[in-house]
């Protein structure tokens, strides 16, 4: 027997035998559903035999036979009725368990979202990609006709999505392009560090989505439920179908606040904040201004995360503010980092360590935040030093700045586009999907080994635009991405360590060393961060102006 649990009330299994009933009853099951028609295989026991053996063990049994590949809407309704009427937990089986899992997936479609159903089925070993359109349609068989068709569809209207749309529009003025994104507001997220440091106002970092979508690009204000890449189709919530010739996937990543027990309940109060959220960054500055003594704890989860330098940027700007007020000596600052190094590119570490020492920051490496008790002001960490047994450590705090764990969005993780870790699989040079050659990805959601920053998306957008343009014209890829990313580390108010690097930690400075030495704190780099990059973002990157990001050309021997 092979039990594959879907929920607390339902487990599915491949074919069972009458002799299995004693073990099934002992495992706590109270009823059985047979979804395999009698006579499907030569060694298959009949339902009558299964039912008789089940009754001897006090189990109820129900016969709901389904032909392979022919689950009807009526079958789904009958399966759902059986789950309601039978005592639970229930064990449902067929030849492999797939039909039973399909029936469950379709029966839950009007109660659970698509990503949750796909993830639950996948965890049990069943791929529901073949019925995803029906799941999105509330479990009912939908029409096969597309509601809309475009030559290029872009999933995601963040920095990457709008930038690549603008770059494509400049190259391909007559091509039909659509952006799919449900959000009303677009945020300049790199500015939230400055909001938390009392330098920017939060409102400066937000604009309406409609004001930024490039002219003549269709905006579909909806959420994506699932992908059918073999059919060149995207399924939207409500089972609307969008067909494409070429697809660009760039919805960003998911901030998994719920991964830390107790965090959601205390965010924005009890001294718990985060610059990773628009509405919380002002609270960071409020806490910094209000703290004159006590302990301030700043966290960083396991990689990958958006802008790996952001957690420590919050430290530096907070500590600088306390230093200017003359209270730094009364504040115990801790950087609880799940990783084992301060920064992933070693060339920048010496300059950063000077500030760690200046501000008296305690570096607590291999500390991963797992729970927060806001009213008691206690943070609990899983501490996993190499070659030692993991232990849990409680750390009291007066201020807690949290960088949340981060994953690919749910609808990406359960899609066929994703790798085992949930990120979209691409060739790291061309950013083309490794399985479907009419799909590209950029930004935080794809799996190339680069830093997930807005600067990386700024470099990636023209690469994708150039390669799609070449593809439409029947040519091979012409541009390649070198892994460029940038992290302006705000080490104090008025100075920045401008980290710029590519694949493998290779330094890729944009400016001559005599102007900005990225390995040292610089006022010029601060000017860039504070005054130049915001308008560069709004009026440059999102308008398709490819300043300082001309794609590298692919050379052939």
TrEMBL record:
Keyword NADP belongs to the record: no
UniProt-recorded Gene Ontology molecular function terms: FAD binding; hydrolase activity; quinone binding; sulfide:quinone oxidoreductase activity
UniProt keyword Oxidoreductase, yes or no: yes
Keywords: FAD, Flavoprotein, Oxidoreductase, Quinone, Transit peptide
Segments crossing the lipid bilayer: none
Organism: Jannaschia faecimaris
Residue ranges constituting the FAD/NAD(P)-binding domain according to the UniProt record: 151-263
Gene3D superfamilies given in the database record: FAD/NAD(P)-binding domain, Protein tyrosine phosphatase superfamily
Gene Ontology biological process terms from the UniProt entry: sulfide oxidation, using sulfide:quinone oxidoreductase
Pfam family for this entry, one: Pyr_redox_2
Annotated Beta-lactamase hydrolase-like protein phosphatase-like domain residues: 2-109
Protein name according to UniProt: Sulfide:quinone oxidoreductase
Cofactors that this protein relies on: FAD
NCBIfam families membership: TIGR01244 family sulfur transferase (TIGR01244)
Source superkingdom: Bacteria
InterPro entries with a match to the protein in the record: BLH_phosphatase-like, FAD/NAD-bd_sf, FAD/NAD-binding_dom, Prot-tyrosine_phosphatase-like, Sulphide_quinone_reductase
